[in-house]
UniProtKB/TrEMBL annotation:
Protein name per its UniProtKB record: DeoR/GlpR family transcriptional regulator of sugar metabolism
UniProtKB keywords: DNA-binding, Repressor, Transcription, Transcription regulation
Species this chain originates from: Rhizobium lusitanum
SUPFAM superfamilies documented for this protein: NagB/RpiA/CoA transferase-like, Winged helix' DNA-binding domain
Record-linked InterPro entries: Carb_Metab_HTH_regulators, DeoR-like_C, DeoR_HTH, NagB/RpiA_transferase-like, Tscrpt_reg_HTH_DeoR_CS, WH_DNA-bd_sf
Amino acid sequence: MLTSQRKALILDRLRRDGQVVAKALADDLSLSEDTIRRDLREMATEKLLKRVHGGALPLSPDLPDFSARQAVSSEEKRRLGAFAARMIEPGQTVFLDGGTTNAEIVRHLPKDLAVTIVTHSPTIASELEHHSAIDVILIGGKLYKHSMVATGAAAMAAIASIRSDIFFLGVTAVHPVRGVSTGDFEEAAIKRHIAQYAAETYVLATADKLDAASPCQILPVTAVSGLIVPADISEESLTPYRNAEVPILPA
């Protein structure tokens, strides 16, 4: 088997199983474990996967700080935000997670839309300054500065008193096996808590977030109501999510 074929197979296995165990793969392919480990080292150098003891995991996305992410407002994010904004109906209570993609939802909301927006992100709340018809509930707590969202016991308690019709969940990675995830344990806990009290939970996923895994799982991918993804994502990329019966909403 050619090196390129082995590497393609490794990527397929990562996508399918969420991990690669070097010994097991070597046995499956009747190859030496050293050969597989060499492939994994090379692929890690090429930033195709993350090497761990005994094998590999999907690549964990880089986590630039909020200011750096805020400066990048891609056309892809704008399309996803516009699509999500159209899902919101008058009279609903909507929980908006923090993040630059969710900020695009606010920017596409009609100024006269009468809804209640709940958020634990002061940056999201500030985006709503000129939406006179929207009631804004800002959840307080300990500020996690990387994502500019409130976490901790005070935030948990306030969230538990609110039942939202729809929650737009911000994530750093989406994987068919490892679920939707983020880079911080406390942030993952607060996101999971919000989802518990929402009737529906949707994830806006840019192309770079698919088939990746961050350290802290928020929810299994099957627990979300749908993935809002760019319309030009290949059908092959979406197949594992469709197989898991996750609704896909192309934007």
